[in-house]
Each structure stands twice: as C-alpha cells, then as structure tokens.
Amino acid sequence: MTKSTPAIVILGQSALSTARRIQQVYPAAQIHGLAGRVEGADCSYQEFGATLRALYQQDTPIIALCAAGIVIRTLAPLLIEKGAEPAVLAVAEDGSTVVPLLGGLGGVNVMARKIADALQVSAAITTSGELRFGTCLLNPPSGYALADLEQGKRFVSDLLAGHSVRIDGAAPWLDQAQLPEDPQAQHSIHVSSAEREASANELLIHPRSVAVAVSADVADLSSAIRTALQQTKVAQQSLACLLAADHEMASASLREAALELGVALRFVAAQSDLEALATVAMPAAKVVRANGLAIAIAELPLDVASIGRPRGRLAVIGLGPGAAELMVPAVKAELARCTDVLGYETYVRMAGPFRDDQVQHCTDNREEMQRARHAFRLAAEGRSVIVVSSGDPGVFAMAAAVLEALHESDDPAWHSVDLEILPGVSASLATAAQAGAPLGHDFCVMSLSDNLKPWSIIEKRLDLAAEADLALAFYNPISRARPWQLGRALEIVAQHRRPETPVVLGRDIGRPGQTLRTTTLGALTPDQVDMRTMVLIGSSTTCTFPRVTGGDWVYTPRWYGERPAS
Known about the structure:
Shape: globular
Number of domains: 5
Oligomer: single chain
Number of strands: 28
Mean pLDDT: 90
Radius of gyration: 29 Å
Number of helices: 17
C-alpha cells in the first residue's frame, strides 16, 4: 500500500465536488486545479501534461479526474525505463468510474477500492492475479512484507499457469482467497520472520512481528540493529518497531535510526536492562540478545500502537487567512495526522472537517495559557496534538503562549515532546497581496489591543514607527470594548504622514464576503473599520495607480529617495 500522500488533479470546475469527496479519504491530499478553469482548488497548475509527469517522477500517487486515455498518453514517455511506479488512477469527473492504471505493487488497487467505496461505485480492477485469486499476493496487507518481488512475480505466474499451492505459517488474510490449495503442492507460500533464501517454488512473506530494544548510547545504531538481526537470522523486513526507555524520548539518534530503518519508535518505562525492557513491552514474545541489543520475536504481526507509547507531538499551526488554497501543505498534513485539536472554536471550525477519531478541544479566545498547558499535557501522554491559530501562529497568536508554557515548566515529559511551529499566511501579508505590494519595503506590524500591554507602550511605538517612515500594519484595530484607540492611533500617525498617504482596508481577506478598499490617511475614520479589518498605512513612498478591472494597485517601491537608474 502506498505510503505517500496522493495528488488529486482536476481539469474542470465540474470535477471539484468529486475531488472534495475523494479528499475526505485522503485528507492530506491537495487538489490541483487547472489555472483559469478551476476555482477553489488547493493549488493551481498551468499545464496538465507537465504537472502529471512531474508528480509521477516525484513518486507521488496520482488521482486524475479525467479520461483514462489522457492519463495514459501523458505518462507513456515515462514508462519505457520506469524505476519506481507510484499508483495512478483515473476517476470520472462525476465519480461514476474508478480505474486503477499503474502501480499494482504500489497499492493502486487498494486505493481504487477505498475511493470507490467513498463514491459508492465499483472499482474497475483488471489485475489478472487479483481477479483470479481475490487478492494481490505481491502486495500483502499491512503487517506483512514480501521478501523478493521478482521471485514473487514468477511464483504468481506459475499459479496462473495452473500450479497448486500450500500455505506454511499464519496468513489469515488468505483464508478468503480463491487459491488452488493442495497440502501436497510443490509451490508454497511461507510466512516466517526467519531470514533465509526462498526455494525455487516458494513465495516468502515476512510478518512484521519483531521489535528491537535499543539505547541511545549505542554507536551507529541502525548498523548495530542490522547486525543483531543478521546474527539471530531474523529478516529485516520483519522489524516492526524499536523500543526505548521513556527518558530517552528526545534522543535524535533514536529518531534517526527509526527513520532510516522505516519503522516506528515506541517508548516504555525504564527497566534494569534492554532485555527486561523488551520483556515488559512484549511479555508473550521470545526475547534473545545479540550485539548488545534485545530482540523480541512474536508469532504474528505486532499491533505497534498497543506497545508502549510514541513520542508525543505538539504542532502549533497557522491556518492562513481562511481560504483553503492559502493554507500551506505542511499544515494540511498535520491536520490529517493529529489526534487532538485545540483552539478558539471559530478557528477549530475553520480547520475542519475532522474525522470521528480526532478530538476537538474548543476554548474561549482569551484562554491562551490554559490551552497551551492542556496541549502539553495531552502531548506528554503520547498523543499528536495541534494548537490552531488563524494567520501565522507566531504573529499575535498561539506560538508565543505555547513556548511560554514550556519555558515555565520543569516537567521533563513536556520538554520531551516533539514541538514544531508551522507557519501560515498572516492577515497582513494576505491583505497586502490582494492590494499589490504596500508592504514592499520596510514595515512595522502592530496590534492596537491594549489587553496584554499598556496603551502608553502602543503610543510610543506608533510614534517611533511613524517617524521612521515605516509602512504600518494594524491588527486588532478596534472593538466595542476599545472604541477610541484607532482614532488616537491615526492622530499619532498623521503627525508624521501626509493626508494623501495611501491606506488599504482589507476585511475578511481569504474568507467568504471579503472586501478590499483603498483610501487615504486623511479620509480614514474609525467608523470605516471593525475588528475583522486589517489596516495597512503606507510610507512616504507608497504609490497607487488604477487597475483596469477597477480599484487601485498599491505598492511601496524598494528604492528610497531618488528612483534608481534603470
């Protein structure tokens, strides 16, 4: 099955609703829409063929909502000397047909069935082995790994030619398969964690049933693990996870070894030695020592999620101004993987929809520190937590509160959490982009809210920033509880700026009903602004000129004083 996040590629507006239904199956997938023909996609592209080929060469699974023939003709030049083969599917724009085209060994048929189930149609599976036997022997389910793909292809060809087969070992997913079974057959499917050469008529499948207890003190850890597996004649494909003591949770070497080996990393309470650690984590497994490590071997694939716990993760994310296409891909991926979502209820709703298994913790917008501490408590339990902000989390949002909570804490479990701040498009930048480039030179970003800082500080900073001739961006400009501050702020700025200085007012930019208006400092009054308005005030060099579509372009040139010679 594919481990990569697929790309959903559409050519026309009529395919968008189907693409959104498919996106519910793969929440981290981006919808790529053809520029000029699709509105509301997550990102746009200019040329279908170049985009599809680039995704394929990047080993990205592709779900193309168009005719299968278009996809085949587009990718044909890349198939002559193919290396990796990502899954490629064609889906009818109305969702009536799902056709797997490429990537039989990359889980394309599994993807096709998942998408077809979501669209309530049947997938057009054409793979001969899967049609004959009801399963793809070359792509065993999660928890099992094929030992040798090329030998596996020959083995399936033999079965298709009429040979019978016997099954040695536990292979429960084959119970419902239509295999030509015979206890005396020369061909066999052997399921075992043992490392050995397969015989000529054997399909060797390894259950992911092995865990290795490790320590961050071991030098060149991934090599030490491979050596230990070789010494005990255990197949590396059977390795399901690494086990470590919970006090080593923040170790970079453990994390790097797990990534290099492509397995999970789980933590358990510290024990007297690695053998005891493995026994506590997997009491029913056989534990052997090799190369200074402890190897726990079970009969069946491990349910890794039930062993110990993972390192907790806390991501502080920025949703951007509100439009889906302005949310960065890393944030979308984090939203798809998290177990818990914390934030102001309005922002949590903007971040959704969420799956039933994702827990939402909505709080009042003024409870920032309580929210941050709650997030660390959840993450310290091994959960994957996100704290949601609009815009960018580091601009008058939750990143500072989360770091402050961590700074104040002496709990080692909090400091062991995998903490990451993911950026978003801030409201000032989104408004500036709509207007042109009013923040194209040096600028100052300020909040006019005096809830957390004295108004005297705001006045001082305003006066200095205006005197320095910086373009200004005002967050939280006015509210019912603060009706007079914006008027006073404009008085201070007016002491240093001409009345004709351009001003941009962006309300709900990136959200439904957005408005953008250009005025001047002399004409601006507080009643033109509310709490959802971003106010951008130009510098002495900020210029405006008419757009052919109406309104004005606003920009602050990067030169200062005399225009440089061209």
